[in-house]
Write a structure and sequence with these properties.
The protein has about 150 residues and is an alpha+beta fold. Helices cover about 30% and strands about 40% of the residues. The chain has a seven-stranded mixed sheet with strand order 1-2-3-4-5-7-6.
């Protein structure tokens, strides 16, 4: 999947992106996924990983798991210095398009209760809060909001 023009694109992640994505994980999450987990994920038959690349730099990435007709956003990360510029929205659109093209009837995700910016993004993508998971996150401890797009 290619999108955009010039040196900006959303495309499936490849092995050569792993180091940049692992670095993005470390700067975006208090509990980052390891290089090895990312590597195994890009070869999973259930997951699709996309990167948002501009001028040969990875500015964001995401992972959608598709199983039994439902999608689950496993991860989405945008480099802090380029947030609020549409990168997250474009990654969400790529995952939602992939899910729809592959027959998913619903998509879910978990988000930190206090992550207002992410929750607003997900709401603009048609997700609604349906449940809470108490104490789901650690470092720091926080509840997770379970959101669905049906």
């Amino acid at each position: 999947m290619m999108e955009g023009t010039g040196r900006l694109c959303i495309r499936k992640m490849k092995e050569s992106d792993l180091e940049a994505v692992a670095k993005l994980e470390r700067c975006c999450f208090t509990e980052p996924w390891s290089y090895r987990l990312l590597e195994s994920g890009i070869y999973s038959p259930y997951d699709v990983y996309y990167v948002f690349e501009q001028e040969n730099q990875i500015l964001g990435y995401c992972d959608l798991r598709l199983l039994a007709g439902e999608g689950e956003v496993q991860r989405i990360a945008v480099r802090p210095d380029v947030r609020r510029r549409g990168v997250g929205r474009r990654l969400m659109d790529a995952m939602m398009d992939f899910a729809e093209q592959n027959g998913a009837t619903a998509i879910s995700l978990e988000v930190r209760e206090g992550n207002e910016a992410a929750r607003r993004l997900y709401e603009t993508c048609g997700f609604a809060a349906e449940a809470m998971r108490r104490g789901y996150y650690h470092n720091p401890p926080e509840d997770a909001v379970i959101m669905w797009r049906r």
